[in-house]
Design goal:
The chain has one domain: Lipocalin. A nine-stranded antiparallel β-sheet has the order 4-3-2-1-9-8-7-6-5. It has helices at residues 2-25, 38-41, and strands spanning 27-33, 42-50, 53-58, 64-65, 67-72, 75-82, 85-94, 97-104, 107-115. The protein has 118 residues and is of the alpha+beta class. Residues 1-18 form the signal peptide.
């Protein structure tokens, strides 16, 4: 009985932490990537919870789905198909900002994003 109660409490706590992380990330973020051609410099990304799972998209009209999206503590990582290749994004969330690196075949580029006003 004690074991069952412990499992139920642990599961509830884990769900609450996961849900809290999702709440902090959910929404639209405007980003700027440094040291890239102007057409790739600015854009938006959107994170939302669907069916108890965090999903995300890069772009507004031609939305590219984030693959292997992982949100752990304040770390956000995902991959996106981009012009026939795969790019990786590794970021850290601090409040309403995300900072990190975009990793491509052409190198690594700094990225910074801020939460868009609702």
């Amino acid at each position: 009985m004690k074991y069952l109660l412990f499992v139920m409490l642990f599961t509830s706590a884990a769900f609450a932490v996961a849900h809290n992380v999702a709440d902090k990330l959910a929404g639209t973020w405007n980003y700027t990537v440094s040291n890239v051609p102007p057409e790739y410099e600015k854009g938006s990304m959107t994170f939302e919870e669907k069916g108890g799972k965090m999903v995300g998209y890069l772009g507004e009209t031609d939305r590219a789905e984030m693959k292997e999206l992982a949100v752990t503590d304040n770390k956000v990582t995902f991959k996106v198909d981009f012009q026939g290749g795969m790019i990786s994004l590794n970021m850290v969330q601090k409040g309403d900002s995300l900072t990190g690196m975009v990793v491509t075949n052409d190198g690594e580029f700094p990225i910074a994003a801020v939460r868009a006003a609702k």
